[in-house]
Amino acid sequence: MRNKGNPLKIGAWVLMGLTMVAAPALAAAQVSLATVVDLAQRNSSTVKLANADLQKAKALQSQADDVLMPDVEFSTGLPFLPSVGFTGSPSSVYSISVQSTVFGPSQLKYMRAARAGTQAASLSLKDAREQVALSASTAYIELDAVDRERDAARQQEDFTSRLVGIEEQRTEAGVDPLSDLLQARLTAAQLKLTRLHLETRAATLSKQLATLTGLPEGSITPDHASIPEIPEVKAGDAARTTKSIESAQQLSLSKRLTARGDAMSTYIPQMGFGLLYNRNTTLLNDSDYYYAHKIPANNFSSGFSVRIPLFDLGHRAKAKESAAEALRAKVEAEQAQRQNEIQVATLTGSLRELDTQAEIASLKRQIAHEQLQTVLAQLESGNGAGSGPGAQPQLTPKAEQLARIDEQQKLEDALDAGFELAKARLSLLCSLGHMEDWLNELHAK
Fold first, then answer.
1. CATH says 37-78+88-381+395-444 is which class?
2. By the 8 A CB rule, do 268 and 109 touch?
3. What is the reported pTM?
């Protein structure tokens, strides 16, 4: 009798086979820039830590606000064994106590400080998301440029291979000297080195994007159409304060309010309110025997408490510590502002140069393309041959390969210059506080 296969095992083998078939297609699927940025922000440890700091700040704010809310406690406890003799207090079945702060100017400062701390943590989280988006976008755009440069480098190698073959034939025929053949081989070796460098750079960027997004290494193929045009923003065009600077300013405000609260607590009284209810019992002791009158079962008391600071060196030292922290936070916020201004000035100066370099590279590419078209036209029509004095020599296939190699080289230069320009523009957007606008455009694309 034949043993029938387990349907679950058969299904598992079929699913595994389909996965293996589909794996090559999934290994290098095109992923949009918006998807990469979103995955990087979700996977970033920096963003997760900033989010944890925000949750902590919210908890501290709630803790500061709840001081003015009454604290209600319920407690109960019967003796394990009957009491013997006079214990000093009657046994209670349960008790309820209520406590709250009624008047405390320093607490109001602490509440405002907690709110500023929450705002600082929220801005820090936004800054972390923007920084991760900047890193992911820069790596993605560079990988897109490197991939296109690799395609151009491969075509260059093909053209150089043909050039080496042509030079070998011309050298054997005695038309060209051996130095021309060696020069062609040197060009081929240099182009191979360039391709290897691009492949190494592409592997590094692929690893970087995999680390940022959590996707498998090599699974991201850039989609050039998903990259929106980066706007040309200048330092004087509606500059905004960055999230990191705003966060530092809010943190400075929080520290300053905390210092004021600590200082006020050393000389301003605080008032509190309390309420207590006890339900007494004589089931397990005879406490009434020791008192002139029976202790009632229901006991209630309430009142206000006033704390007047007269001599408290501990709080005074704490106030000095808070004042020093507030001063440090203020200096750090000012330092962050100055550093950002310097970065904006540096990027603005670099952008002018990079913009001109990109324009020059683009013009050189166009010139190389036109020169190639001229060479192809002359080869096709045979123009250029002449026997008279000053006549142009007849072009050969060697000239075509050289023109094609030069065109691809100018294409690589233009792509590299374009990436450097895009990188500088993105950094300037972030330094001017416009990164969020570009991210909104990115997700809307």
1. mainly alpha
2. no
3. 0.78
